[in-house]
Amino acid sequence: MKNILFFPVYPFNSPHSETDLELIISEIEKGNDIYYLFCNKELKTCDTNISSDKKICNACIRVRKEALRMVSSYTKKKCNIIPLNKYIIALKKMNYNPYLNINFNNVEDLKKINYHSFNVGYGIASSLAIELDEASSIDEYREKIGTLYYETIKFYECIKLIIKDYSISTGYVFNGRFCFSRAFTQAFIDEKVTFFTHERGSTNQKYEIFGNVFPHNIINYTNRVNNWWNKNEDLFIKKIIADLFFIKKFLGEDTDYKSFTKEQDIFQLPSELNNYKKVVTIYTSSNFEFDYVSNEYTYKFYSSQIDGIIQIVNSLKNEKDIGIFLREHPNQKFGKSNFRQQLRQLNFSNFHYIPAESAVSSYKLLLKSNVVITFNSTMGIEATYWGIPSILCSNAIYENFNIVYKPSTHDEVINLIKSNLEPISKDDVYKYGYYHSTFGIKFKYYEPINLAYGKFLGKYIKCSRRIKLYNFINHILKIIILKNKLGEF
Q1: Could you state, in order of their start, the residue ranges of all structural domains in the chain?
Q2: pTM here?
Q3: Quick one: average pLDDT of 225-243?
Q4: What pLDDT is recorded for position 288?
Q5: β-sheet bridge partners, residue 206
Q6: What is the dotted CATH code of the domain comprising 3-225?
Q7: Is pLDDT at 470 greater than 50 in this prediction?
Q8: 94: which DSSP letter?
């Protein structure tokens, strides 16, 4: 029998909260004891409630209580509740003082902040990623960063005490990159205890768990994809599955995540396209997706994505036969990041900015391109699949595969663009497509309705009281209408 610790970081977010519950039942069925860490408004802020809204706290508590009730009713076994406040009081008695030197002037300084072995700065940056992307100055968030720092370190110290007090042998948490989930995993690392992070699987019907590592760890990802590919010896079937993956993405259909291109006009192209002998297309990625994950995701010879774009455009501005088209990631449609503002300021005769909200087809443009440039975007992989030479200008989760050209200097990037590049073999691209079509563990107790909503054990568990009341009234009205109709016969 093992003692398993759970801390639900995102109780409102499907399927992540339901994955926690799925894993709890799975561990109970194995005969293990479940310890469930319960926050009762003791934390001033958390990843679920960065804004410290009391209404969110109340809703979070209500949802977690309902979820635990459902699990206990189904398994006939109660989870052991660990009140977080007990350990916060214990820390105070120990004269705990988390304040170290946390001086910072920018995001890069923030990411370097450590509390002993714990890289708390990256956790804070991940939790505030979108806000930091849109801030005119990091000074706007100094108070919030200070609060997050204090509360995260307090939580981290609590987890270490809990692991010892309850002889915890395994822990589960969602993703691991954000403040409190990162604190959770670091405590397990420090205490040399096994932990698992969990994330979405290849479809909304599946989830995946990752032992003692974050889902976005590059080496672990490389091994997972290769091992998954090698499990199935039928090369023909694997390639067919991979082909379908890339075709669905091209057509704007949901695959391993929702499609961001489904609202685009698959036939629409930029009007300036025919003005050039060579078309170079840059596909951007969202900074908050990777820049705040870990120091694995760096820019080898550029300081940032915008720095790389500016340097490339500047080096090619006098090349009249080369047209540079920048396709902004569609998920930035409503964003107000500094990155977007800087892109709009680029003004060169052969540079054409296609904003996120444009109906221009990312894939039609891809097929018309002679060279594709990416900074982490998976369009770099898709370019190779469709036979377009692809250049990667930063680290990426797929960098260990032979999928893209990987220059080591800016000059090499420019030389590759100007040369007559041949597309790279699709062998490793098939591995990517097959993996992202099939990986994961099928849900047993969770029934997804769509990508972000579903039923657990046949019920919705995250409805607000107002929605529950509305559903009850609606149900009563339907009965009344039905009775009236039956009375007419």
Answers
A1: 3-225, 237-438, 465-489
A2: 0.91
A3: 98
A4: 74
A5: 442
A6: 3.40.50
A7: no
A8: T
Assign 272 to helix, strand or coil: helix
Hey, CA dihedral for 268, 271, 274, 276, is it positive or negative?
A: negative
Angle at 388 between CA 382 and CA 394, to 5 degrees: 65
Q: 3-225 and 237-438 share one CATH topology?
A: yes
Checking if the pLDDT of 457 tops 70, the result is yes
Higher-confidence position of 333 and 19: 19
Handedness of CA 78, 82, 83, 86 (dihedral sign): positive
Which class does domain 237-438 fall in?
A: alpha beta
pLDDT at 481 over 70: no
Phi (first) and psi of residue 294, to 5 degrees: -165, 175
Strand 206-211: give its sheet, edge to edge: 80-83, 33-38, 3-6, 170-174, 194-200, 206-211, 441-442
**Cα-Cα end-to-end distance for the chain:** 62
Q: Are the beta carbons of 372 and 385 closer than 8 angstroms? A: no
The whole-angstrom separation of Cα 138 and Cα 156 is 24
Q: Are 456 and 14 in contact (CB under 8 A)?
A: no
Burial 164-190 (b: 16+ CB within 10 A, else e): eeeebebbbbbbbbbbbbbbbbbbbee
pLDDT digits 0-9 by tens, 276-301: 999 999 999 987 777 888 889 988 89
C-alpha to C-alpha distances, 68 to 71, 159, 188, 207, 460, nearest whole angstrom: 5, 20, 24, 20, 13
At residue 302's C-alpha, the angle toward residues 299 and 308, to 5°, is: 110
